[in-house]
Amino acid sequence: MQVSTADFKKGLRIVFDGQPYMIVDFQHVKPGKGGAFVRTKLRHMRLGKVIDNTFRSGEKVDLVDFDEKHMQFLYRDDRYHFMDTETYEQVSLSAEEVGDAREYLKENTEVDVLYIDGGPAGVGLPNFVELAIVKTDPGVRGDTAQGGTKPATLETGAAILVPLFLSEGDVVRVDTRTGEYLGRVATAAG
Fold it and tell me: Which of 120, 88, 92, 108 is nearest to 156 (CA)?
């Protein structure tokens, strides 16, 4: 099936140069001279790398033929292991196949595993996850939310910026699409 650039939206999965990509961001541009075009950021669905590409306005592209299966992340060794929540069938993916999603994968997280041409090809995370801070400078009393940020490492290994008042052990909500801190869910038991 084909779509026009007029139908582009974030999250749309398209075929570009024979490869499956997901539209991360796009912008319609109408210059004073010349034809209109669409500037896009595309994430490779198997490799996770992001590229920039410009399409002519009205250009048609194929949609990726894919399936999604709802799965639960079980554990990680040299591969990442998932279980189908309906059939209990297990699949394992390499770090490359999991891509950037591995930054936010915690055991028991529910995800959508993408299948392209019958084989697992990537992981779709929930938009928001809740993770504990395992490493950051100590919180400072009296610091407000507007008081700046500091780096923090989450239990999955992801590095994000958090407000100064947060401490190790605090559980925070993170947007998996941007890596942005959204709020504190729980404070460290202490």
Answer: 108
Q: Which residue has the tokens 């209990």?
A: 88
For domain 2-62, the question of CATH label 2.30.30.30 is answered with yes
The label of the residue with tokens 């669409």 reads 38
What is the C-alpha separation between 16 and 43, in angstroms, rounded?
A: 11
Q: How far is CA 28 from CA 7, 37, 48, 65, 97, in A?
A: 11, 6, 24, 25, 31
- Cβ atoms of residues 133 and 162 within 8 Å: yes
DSSP 59: -
Which residue matches tokens 């959508």?
A: 112
The phi and psi torsions of 102 (rounded to 5 degrees) equal -65, -20
Could you read off the pLDDT of 56-102 as tens digits, one per residue?
A: 999 999 998 888 899 999 999 999 999 999 999 999 998 888 878 88
66-124: what fold?
A: OB fold (Dihydrolipoamide Acetyltransferase, E2P) (2.40.50)
pLDDT score, position 155: 94
Distance CA 189, CA 42 (A): 41
